[in-house]
């Protein structure tokens, strides 16, 4: 009897050791085929720009093949849902962000996934303030001009955003509340269409991530009025914050990061995190991200996961107070 128990334990230990060795070996040889990186927004927006930048730099540094694929719609929640359904092998990734991970679930009824349960945090990539801007030909020269016009005629000033319920839309909503004004929100399917209409003068203001707008700002076609973060953006140091413009303690920003389906092997997550963080530590990558109006910020998987869980809880109340709900 004793001998049978010893043999059984030995067999179990052997099987466990084989499984661990296989997992470690798979991580050591990872990747052996192309990696799909889902982008939950249309081409040209901040999420798309950063996803393709990370993919290109990883491909250069490691000779990996990373294929970015746009899956836009429903404030980015469609692309996240696509990633959740992917195989947890490390070959299905998504560039998530604050909008679709911690805000979308409180906006859309009956989403079939939970960001804290159905996804694995891989690597935080960058954060950025939201920017309030207008066409270079606009009559608005400062944020104070916008407030004055909106107070004189409530609802007369329009602003475009990447969509209902995005953090950018809610940044606009929070600004309205802070300034005691009423603006008319016009949602678009992504930042780029909103940008195009702002440049054409079809909407008065653009509320956008900095990466989506910085190209036209640098080209002199878009006039930045304020950023929504507590401190000025290092990419646009001459642009005042909303707080500096008279609205004390105003602070709204967004962030971006890479995630994988829940159950992705920890060793694969560790490999991905280490390689992405190596890139984020290089002056070249930091400059490339800053050129897009964002700030590189590396995190371990555990820290990034904790950020998602913390903000997921915080934004429940913000969304409820905004009154925004998408069926």
Automatic annotation (TrEMBL):
Keywords for this protein: Receptor, Signal
PANTHER family registered for this protein in UniProt: BLR1237 PROTEIN, TRICARBOXYLATE-BINDING PROTEIN
Family: Belongs to the UPF0065 (bug) family.
Domain of life: Bacteria
Signal sequence, start to end: 1-22
InterPro entries: BUG (IPR005064), Bug_dom1 (IPR042100)
Family matches, as Pfam families: TctC
Protein name listed in UniProt: Tripartite-type tricarboxylate transporter receptor subunit TctC
CDD domains the record matches: PBP2_Bug27
């Amino acid at each position: 009897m004793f001998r049978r128990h010893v043999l059984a334990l030995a067999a179990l230990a052997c099987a466990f050791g084989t499984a661990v060795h296989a997992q470690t070996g798979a991580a050591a040889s990872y990747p052996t085929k192309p990696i799909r990186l889902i982008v939950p927004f249309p081409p040209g927006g901040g999420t798309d720009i950063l996803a393709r930048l990370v993919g290109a730099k990883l491909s250069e540094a490691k000779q990996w093949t990373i294929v970015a694929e746009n899956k836009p719609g429903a404030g980015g929640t469609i692309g996240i849902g696509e990633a959740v359904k992917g195989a947890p092998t490390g070959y299905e990734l998504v560039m998530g962000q604050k909008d679709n991970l911690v805000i979308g679930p409180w906006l859309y009824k009956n989403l079939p996934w939970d960001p804290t349960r159905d996804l694995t945090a891989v690597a935080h990539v960058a954060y950025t303030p939201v920017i309030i801007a207008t066409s270079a030909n606009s009559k608005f020269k400062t944020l104070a001009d916008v407030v004055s016009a909106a107070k004189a005629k409530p609802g007369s000033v329009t602003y475009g955003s990447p969509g209902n319920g995005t953090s950018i839309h809610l940044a606009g909503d929070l600004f309205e509340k802070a300034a005691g004004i009423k603006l008319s929100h016009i949602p678009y399917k992504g930042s780029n269409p909103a940008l195009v209409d702002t440049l054409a003068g079809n909407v008065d203001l653009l509320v956008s991530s900095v990466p989506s707008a910085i190209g036209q700002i640098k080209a002199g076609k878009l006039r930045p009025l304020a950023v929504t973060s507590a401190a000025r953006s290092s990419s646009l140091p001459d642009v005042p914050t909303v707080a500096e413009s008279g609205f004390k303690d105003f602070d709204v920003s967004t962030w971006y990061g890479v995630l994988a389906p829940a159950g992705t092997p920890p060793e694969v997550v560790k490999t991905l995190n280490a390689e992405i963080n190596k890139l984020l530590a290089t002056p070249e990558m930091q400059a490339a991200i800053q050129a897009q109006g964002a700030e590189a910020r590396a995190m371990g998987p555990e820290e990034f996961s904790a950020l998602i869980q913390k903000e997921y809880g915080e934004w429940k109340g913000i969304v409820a107070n905004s009154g925004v709900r998408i069926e």
